[in-house]
Amino acid sequence: MAKTKKDPKDAAEATADIEMVDIEEKVIFQLSNAQSELERANFQSPKKSKKETTEIIIPIEDLSPLAKPLAQKKLLKKLNKTIKKASKARQIKRGVKEVVKGIRKGEKGLLILAADISPIDIISHLPVLSEEAGVPYVFVSSKEELGYASSTKRPTSCVMICPDQKKKAKRKEGKDDKEDDYKDLYEECYREVEKMDTQIVF
């Protein structure tokens, strides 16, 4: 019986097929490893993720020269907590338009302004307006933190906490009314801001 001559094209195709299978196996193996790494990363304990809170640090050069009085770290935490609770109770005004309308109507509360607003002309009239109305105000360093605390995804230039506002939070059945939940914290912040308040209008 005579030997048949092998076609060099067939041999090249066979080796190419073997190489493709090897490459596919390697890719599948790498994908499965990457997937297991992702699964391990996603199943971390929630306690670790709570500790990893990121603080927004704003350089002093980016803050407005008009930003006085500026809340320090301890007061800033209290203010953020108060704003979160007030926004859940729907006793908050966000943005320049709402705040100006509230002050002109004679509503009383605590005004919190962001110090990193550019241009500062957007909120420069608010300290004078609030002093004339007898509303204490304080500046915080970051508009992003202020927006996050007031339950919005966007940065907020100013927020006014109005504890006597008529809007009520949507009540759920079976839960107690937590209307006065944040009032003590609000009163504490109000007193601290009144102490540090530096007046522009005399």
TrEMBL record:
It holds the Pfam family Ribosomal_L7Ae. Coiled coil: none annotated. Transmembrane segments: none annotated. It is found in: Nucleus, Nucleolus. Residues 78-168 form the Ribosomal protein eL8/eL30/eS12/Gadd45 domain. One of its GO terms (biological process) is snRNA pseudouridine synthesis. GO terms for molecular function: RNA binding. GO terms for cellular component: box H/ACA snoRNP complex. InterPro entries: eL8/uL1-like, H/ACA_rnp_Nhp2-like, Ribosomal_eL30-like_sf, Ribosomal_eL8-like_CS, Ribosomal_eL8/eL30/eS12/Gad45, Ribosomal_eL8/Nhp2. Keywords: Nucleus, Ribonucleoprotein, RNA-binding. It comes from the Eukaryota. PROSITE patterns: RIBOSOMAL_L7AE. Gene3D superfamilies: 3.30.1330.30. Belongs to the eukaryotic ribosomal protein eL8 family. Common component of the spliceosome and rRNA processing machinery. This is H/ACA ribonucleoprotein complex subunit 2.
